[in-house]
Amino acid sequence: MGEDLSWFQYEKKDAATSGGLICRTLQTLCKKAVLGYGRSLNCFWKASKTGASEDSWNPWRLNRSCSSRRSVETRNSHLQRSGSSMKQNPKKVFGRVTSWSQYLENGSGKDDGVNISKDHTTDLSELFLGQKFASGTHSRLYHAFYKQQAVAVKLIMPPTEDEALAIRLDQQFSQEVALLSRLRHPNIVQFVSACKNPPVFCVIMEYLPGGSLKNFLHKSEPYSLSIELVISIALDTASGMEYLHSEGIIHRDLKSDNLVMTEDLRVKVADFGVSCLETHKEDMKGYTGTYRWMAPEMIKGKLCSRKVDVFSFGIVLWELLTGLTPYSDMTPVQAAFAVCQKNARPAIPPHCPRVMAKLMKKCWSTNPSNRPEFSEVVKVLEDFRMKSK
Ligand SMILES: Nc1ncnc2c1ncn2[C@@H]1O[C@H](COP(=O)(O)OP(=O)(O)OP(=O)(O)O)[C@@H](O)[C@H]1O
């Protein structure tokens, strides 16, 4: 199974078959539908009502693959009659293209050892997968529709050749699902469903079309964000984090990459793969976040408190004010060493409002108990917003 399970292998093999071509066309069309014709099923309903061309929408249902030749109308009724069986053999239509997704088909789509409520189990017949839009270290994120809602599907495929890593990813998946499924807050990515059909794990969550804050900052000129926008994004992040901490959860990997944006530039906290309950800190020793954002005590492998997130928030605030990557002249390991051994911190940008400079410095204090709680951070930012109006 080893070689066959590589994501890249599948993508290469897919492309080499005519089925692969159909699949890629479908994916492109699907992207067009998702990106170009609106980000909800409305576009599909509109297209089917007006008899628009097939280019408008070509979703690809996971375990009930539909032919690219079908009429929009047929697909519409297909959508409405969830679970209706397909007359054609999907393999004939797509060749090997469904090879990676068939891992979701093989199982029931029900949770297998994942601690989630009945409401959150996955009905795969309701899942239409689109194009891949982002990747994590061991995951791929796909556009999709689930129960008529635009969603992001995160597929995780632990490597077969590295048992220790596979076990860790399995734990991270269970952790992410267990934590995310109980959270509900406007600044936390909303969990929808999850399933675990080894070797593929799947998390379905609300889709945020604005991409990550990191991408947004990279697309912007350095130092170009207005102070209003900086405050708004910082407040969204701090509010999400305040809620998370009030639920007894430490994120442990807060960074601009893990903050995702709506179209109107509101921000939500995502990626709970290495998060943990404050009461279970011991269980999570050895799990690491990302060095450039990491608190010194975490780099040193000490037992961490929720204040590690406050440290990371200080670095995110600096990213917002500068639009730059922290310690960009160093490798991540060099940055970690400098933070721990030399007490290095990013340089406060010129013309930085005093309130913000003070807040950043407090957040990235070496002593965790000198760092503020997120409730205090929210208050400082709200006061500052009032004063700068
Ligand atoms: N719900 C979402 N909507 C839109 N984009 C998202 C969503 N969730 C995550 N992303 C994007 O996908 C990227 C990867 O997601 P995520 O961080 O959850 O994966 P990961 O495997 O944990 O990544 P890493 O290994 O880098 O921590 C994020 O940086 C973000 O840009």
TrEMBL record:
GO molecular function: ATP binding; protein serine/threonine kinase activity
Keyword Signal tagged: no
Highest taxon of source: Eukaryota
Domain Protein kinase: 127-385
Keywords for this protein: ATP-binding, Kinase, Nucleotide-binding, Transferase
Pfam families recorded: PK_Tyr_Ser-Thr (PF07714)
Keyword field contains Disulfide bond: no
UniProt-listed InterPro entries: Kinase-like_dom_sf, Prot_kinase_dom, Ser-Thr/Tyr_kinase_cat_dom, Ser/Thr_kinase_AS, Ser/Thr_Kinases-Pseudokinases
Protein name (Swiss-Prot/TrEMBL): Protein kinase domain-containing protein
